[in-house]
Amino acid sequence: MSLVLSTVAGADVSDDLKDANALQNELQAELAENQQKVNSLKEKQGNLESEIAEVDAQIEDISKTLEDYAAKLEEKQARVNELVTQMEDLNVRIDDAYKRMSLRIKYIYESGSTSFLDAILSASSIEDVINNIAYTEEITRYDQRMQEELMGMLNQLNANKKEADQALADIQALYDAQEQERKVLEDLQSIKYGELAVTEEELNKEMAAMESLNAELEANADKISELSSQLDNMDWLDDDDYNDDDDDGGGGYAPQISGSWIWPLDNYFYVSSGFGARWGSFHAGIDIPAPEGTPVKAVDGGIVVLARWSPTYDTGNYIVIYHGNGVYSEYMHLSDIWVYDGQYVSQGQYIGAVGNTGESYGAHLHLSKGIGDCYWQNRVDPFG
Questions:
Q1: φ, ψ for residue 39 (rounded to 5)?
Q2: Taking the domain 241-380, which CATH number applies?
Q3: Which of 354, 340, 355 is nearest to 246 (CA)?
């Protein structure tokens, strides 16, 4: 009865540990996805802030340009006011000249012709002839000067008016164009600020989700620690699915944990990539090249806590075995898996086959050693 109860209790704890590790992997995957979203949103936030700063700078430049145009417009308006004053004076002079011209025309009409012939015929002496001719020429020159003065003033009036109209039109057009561009930029600025607000809201939501996930991960890690301790204090007995007829190195008794790992592959000992820094990152295990299908052995006795395909990580088919005392082994990129969650395995038992699944560039076994509750974050050299 004691043996049966121990077996049942051990199986329950094993199942709980398996579930806790599975949950931890799911939480890790979710956290990784969440981190990607956070990174993406932070990048978007940075881009929006840069774009807003650029738009702000453009608006500031246009505002300065508008100030310059406003000053020029004021300057031109002063010139226009000056021209208007000149035109008013010209209008007075033109009116005066017109009145004088009208009187002159009326006088000529009323007094008759002032030709040279009239000047000669009306003279009583040669002296009168000379004086009349000189007088007639002077009158003619006066009429011409009056006409030229009047035409000059009219031309100046038209020129001034044209200059005033053109000056105002040019400056106003520039001002209107700049004002329109500023409105476009302000609309763009408003849109960017709106996008930034939405991005910050999404970022805050993802940060809150990350905080919640981290709390759940921490709580689940405590649970894994507790279950591991319980399992370490129990007799490791196999379950009903694990029997003496298996020819894969297993047996019907509790697996022996040596605490010393054996090499996981027969006849293949070359390590293509060791534990440590690699390609600007960190390689948390060792890579052992071997033909696809080469059998993989459990490095020590223990219980399978995970045996599955990973849809989110780069591991492909992988197996995690718990060896007691907070020690885990991980086998990645497998082409086939020959064990299942919760199964006890013995040291040297074949658990799967070398493959090229997940993020892999050639058939090989990736072997990792994890320590502690968060073994996936605390890996050490498997044979260091």
A1: -60, -45
A2: 2.70.70.10
A3: 340
- Could you tell me which residues come within 8 angstroms of residue 164 by beta carbon, excluding any fewer than 6 positions away? 79, 80, 83, 84
Strands (E), the chain: 276-278, 281-283, 286-289, 295-297, 302-309, 317-322, 327-334, 336-337, 344-345, 350-353, 364-371, 379-380
Place of tokens 């105002």: 168
The DSSP code sequence of 265-329 is SSS----SB-SEEETTEEE-SEEEE--TT-EEE-SS-EEEEEEEE-SSSS--EEEEEE-STTEEE
The two three-digit tokens of residue 55, written as one number: 């738009």
pLDDT for residue 95: 75
Q: Is residue 185 a contact partner of residue 59, using CB atoms and an 8 Å limit? A: yes
- Confidence at residue 5, expressed as pLDDT on a 0 to 100 scale: 36
The CATH class given to the 47-210 domain equals mainly alpha
C-beta contacts of 183-187 below 8 A and 24+ residues apart = 185/55, 185/58, 185/59, 185/62, 186/59
Instruction: Decide if 304 contacts 21 (C-beta within 8 A).
Output: no
Q: Which amino acid is at 90?
A: L
Contact assessment for residue 75 and residue 168, using Cβ atoms and an 8 Å cutoff: no
Give SS3 for 251.
Answer: coil
Report helix, strand or coil for 380.
strand
Rounded Cα distance between 96 and 149, Å, is: 11
CA distance 106 to 100: 10
Q: pTM of the entire structure?
A: 0.47
Amino acid 142 reads Y
What pLDDT does residue 348 have? 94
Query: What are the average pLDDT values for consecutive 10-residue runs of the chain, which has 384 residues?
Result: 43 72 76 83 86 82 77 77 77 72 62 55 57 58 68 76 78 77 79 85 86 79 72 52 41 64 94 84 90 96 85 79 88 94 89 92 93 79 85
User: Domain segments of the chain: what residues?
Assistant: 47-210, 241-380
User: Do 48 and 192 touch, CB atoms closer than 8 A?
Assistant: yes
